[in-house]
Each structure stands twice: as C-alpha cells, then as structure tokens.
Amino acid sequence: MASFDKKSLVSKLDAVNEYERQPVPQDKLKGWKSFIGTYAGEHTAGTEFVLGPLFVAHGVAAADLLWGLLIGNLLAVLSWAYLTAKISVRKRVTLYYQLEKIGGKNFALGYNLVNAGLFCFLAGSMIAVSATAIGIPFDLTMPTLNDIYPNSMGWVITVLVVGTITTLVAMFGFDQVARFANLAAPWMIMIFIAAAVAVLPELGVKSFSDFWPVAENTIWKGVPLEGQSKFTFWHVTFFAWFCNMAMHIGMADMSLLRYAKKWQYGFASSAGMILGHYIAWVASGILYALFLQKTANSTEFAPGPVAYNAAGIAGALCVIIAGWTTANPTLYRAGLAIQAINSNWKTWRVTFVVGLVTTIAAMFPALVMKLLEFVALYGLILMPAGAVIFADVYLLPRLGLQEEYAERAGIHFNTAAAGTWILTLLICLWLNLSFGIEIFFVGLPGWFIAVVLYVILSKLIQKRPGIA
Amino acid sequence: MTIVPAFLVFAQVMTMSQNKTLMFIGTVGWFVTAPFWMKK
Questions:
Q1: What is the DSSP string of A256-292?
Q2: What are the angstrom distances between the C-alpha of B4 and each of A198, A211, B16, B23?
Q3: Is residue A3 part of a domain?
Q4: Using a CB-CB distance cutoff of 8 angstroms, which residues of chain A are in contact with residue B28?
Q5: In a domain, A227, yes or no
C-alpha cells in the first residue's frame, strides 16, 4: 500500500470527475474491451467460492446444474443488454441520479440506505469467507452448513482480525485495493480452473469420457446434504438469472454502462457470466465434491480448507484475496451511501462504524450458509427501483404522463415511486407466504407488478398536481 | 505456471504435490510481474 498522505489523497479524489450529476460526455465513453474486463473481474469473486458448493449441498443434479446455469446466465446477459444497457446509453447518468430525477432526493436517499445495509451483509459474508482461509494454519474450528451463531472464540477472533483489516483499508486505501483487485482477477480465474482440473482424477475422472458419469454420481448427485432443501433446474436457472437482479433489471449497472458507446456492450456481461457464474461455480462445486468425498460428507462448510485441499497455498490465497477484494469495495460503497445522509459526516468515520457493524455480522456463519437466499433477497429488495426506471422511460411518455416527475415537479419525494417499491415488496412477501413461492422465483412476477403499480400510481399522483 | 500443471496432473504426468508447488510459484510470479505488464 502507498504511504499515507491524506491531503494528497483527498485532492486526488476530488479531482476525479465521476459525472455523478450529469450525463457522461461523448468523449469519455469507453470501448467494449473495457466492459469485458470489468464484468469478468467483478463477477469472479469471493461469492463464487460459496455459491458453487451450495448448489452441491442443495442436491442439484448434474444436468440441472449445467443447463440451468446456461439458460439462467443467458437470461441475465439478455437482461443486461436489452434492459439495462439500452436505458443506460439513452440517459448516460448514474442509477442514483436517475432515481433522484424520478423519485426525488429523499427517495434516492432511501434507496441508498437500503443498498448500504445490504452491502454490509454482503461484505460481512465475504469477510467470513476470507476468515476460513486465514484460520487454516491455526487449525480453526470451521463453521458448518447448519450453523447460525459463532461456533468458537477462535472464529470470532479470526473474523474480527479480517474485518478490522478490511475496514482500515476501506477507510484509507481503497484506490490501492481497486488496483490490486484488477491484478488479481485473471489470476483468480486461472486458480478456479486449475484447481478443479487438477482434482478431477481424484474424483475418478481420468479421461474426458469419465466426466459425465462422475458428474452425475459423485459431484452433482442430486441428493441434498442433511438439513438442506433440494434445488431443481428451476432454482438454478432463476438464481443464475436473478442473483444480479439489482444490477440488470434493478438498473444498478446504469452507473457502469452509461459509459458504453453502444447498448450492445451490455453483452459484455457475458464475460462475467461465463467465467464467474458458469466456470467458477462449476469449478468450486467440483472442489467441494472432493472435500465431501474425503470427509465422508462433513457438514463443515468453509471455502478456505476446500481450496487449500485442492490447490495448496495458492488456493487458500485465492480465497483470502477473492473474499477481501469483494468485501473491501462493498464496504467502501456502503460507507459512501450512508455518508450521503449528512455530508458533514467524515466518510472515514462512517466507514469505521459501518465496518464495525459488518464485522460483527460476519461472525454469524448464517451469512455464508444462507448466501444463496441472501443474494436472491438482495436482488428482490432493489428490483422495484429498476422497474420504476423502466416504466418511467418507456411507458409513462406513451401514456401521456410525465417522466422524471420529481425533477419536473420540483419535489423531493415521489410517492408513486415509493409506493411502488413498498407495495411490490409486500405483494412479493404475500406471494411467498400464501402460495409458498420461493424467494428465488418471486422476483419475476414482482417486476411486472412493480411496472404496473408505478404506472397506476403515477396516473393517480400526476392527476393531482401539487400533491406528491 | 498456474494453470498448465493442472492439466499435467489430469493427464497423470505430474503429481498433485508438484502441482500445488508450481501453482504457488506461479502465484508469486504473477503478483510480482503483473503490475509491470498489465494495463490499469
């Protein structure tokens, strides 16, 4: 890390123009290669060490996994291209600014706060992932699949150490971490692939023709581990599609794709989906299957030992770096989002408090063990904001209603947008509780419900000028 | 050095132990050299 010069860092940060409140100018647009690299790096992360194994734990069958990931990831790429990218190049502003124009400053602030909270939990899960690797030389008692609470003082201390380091770096050295993450991304992909290929002979794959029988009978056997629910093709498909719901149909990647010269660059997301959400998930599933075989289906669930067993120190380092390079920017963004409540608050102090909360959350293994459900919930909670943007851009003008109503009406809080968000989530909750529709699936009807609600509520609100 | 040894293990030309050692050396080599040739 560079020697710390706070004034120099602040002035450098201040000099960076991120076009937070204006469209990106034409001369600042980026070529497609930039997006390929960004998506590949962002979607090969610490989460991949958890999600792939969880599919194995939930008893996904081999064919269901491979087809489900193919179709689900394809749907995700199409969502990024046809929904997110098209609106992004049209508007060329960040998600936050677009939400402010539609919903008002207070609505955007609310979105920021909710997002910050979710970021904290995501960062917490990644701190825990890194901790599982840090704990290897200390013979740490690792958490198990069914653990919710911390299971040992050693675990608490290890998480505390990792969380503290992550927080300090987020407070003072984020730009260095970003550079390090860019360096590490291609290496991580290679580690995933190499580790999985190297362990195949131990699983019984001595030639290409051996792969499918071993995949069906040893790796993805189709039988969930004790205490885990069974996942089907549909779970895999919808998870692969909606795990990044916040980014594509939730429109968070407007902040990224606003720099695209053409909307077709949205297809660059395929780099991340292929490398991170297909290859890495398959690879980590293979590593976990070997772990289960060697430990007679131990319920211990810790990416660190799994990777170490398969790839030695390089594998353990990959888990540490993958978890850390995901936790760090996530924590940094959470700090920025909460600091937006009051610009007088020093960002570093806010980040410290956020880091403390995150580290405490990381001590609870449930954050890792329930990562599939958490990621699905994350996308679901933020999805209505994207539906509001979609409806605002494409439907309201055609129906004779005003788009970007908060900006045009000069209001800070558009109740149509807020009502859409709250009602959509309540309806989704009702669908889950009343009809048993699992969280992985409820986002799809939820999106349509949000679009319809926003149109109806906008019609009601905009019919009564001066009342928001 | 990070990825090729793995395929040699699959082909049963190299042992797992040798592979892990080479992967570690490859890792060190990557982080030492990548800052110089990788674009930001």
A1: HHTTBSSGGGGGGHHHHHHIIIIIHHHHHHHHHHHHH
A2: 10, 19, 13, 9
A3: no
A4: none
A5: yes
Q: Which of A191, A198, A314 sits opposite B9 (nearest CB)?
A: A198
On chain A, the residues whose CB falls within 8 A of the CB of B40 are 179, 182
Smallest Cβ distance to B2: which of A187, A200, A313? A187
Question: What predicted TM-score, i.e. pTM, was given to this entire model?
Answer: 0.88
Distance from CA of A335 to the nearest CA of B (A): 25
Whether A401 contacts A193, CB under 8 Å: no
- Asked whether residue A89 is domain-assigned, the answer is yes
Range of the domain at A128: 30-380
Residue A443 makes CB contacts below 8 A (sequence gap 6+) with A238, A242, A245, A376, A379, A380, A383, A428
Q: Is A202 on the interface with B (CB under 8 A)?
A: yes
Identity of the residue numbered A260? A
Å between A53 CA and nearest CA of chain B: 20
Measured on CA atoms in the order A243, A246, A247, A248, is the torsion positive or negative?
positive
Could you give phi then psi for residue A300, rounded to 5 degrees? -60, 135
Asked whether residue A391 is domain-assigned, the answer is no
CB A313 to CB B20 under 8 A? yes
Q: What is the CATH number of the domain that holds A298?
A: 1.10.4160.10
> Does A312 reach chain B within 8 Å, measured CB to CB?
yes
Residue of B16, B23, B35 lying closest to A183 (CB–CB): B35
Check B35 against A194: CB less than 8 A apart. no
Question: How far A108 CA sits from the closest chain B CA (Å)?
Answer: 32
Give chain A's domain count.
Answer: 1
Tens-level pLDDT at each residue, chain A (468 residues) = 344 455 555 555 554 566 778 898 898 898 888 888 889 888 888 889 999 999 999 999 999 999 999 999 999 999 999 999 999 999 999 898 999 999 999 999 999 899 989 999 999 999 999 999 998 888 888 888 888 899 899 999 999 999 999 898 888 766 677 788 888 889 999 999 999 999 999 999 999 999 999 999 999 999 999 889 999 999 999 999 999 999 999 999 998 899 999 999 999 999 999 999 999 999 999 999 999 999 988 888 889 989 998 899 999 999 999 998 888 888 888 887 887 777 788 878 888 999 999 999 999 998 888 888 899 999 999 999 999 999 999 999 999 999 999 999 999 999 999 999 999 999 999 999 999 999 999 999 999 999 999 999 999 999 655 444
For residue A61, give the DSSP letter: B
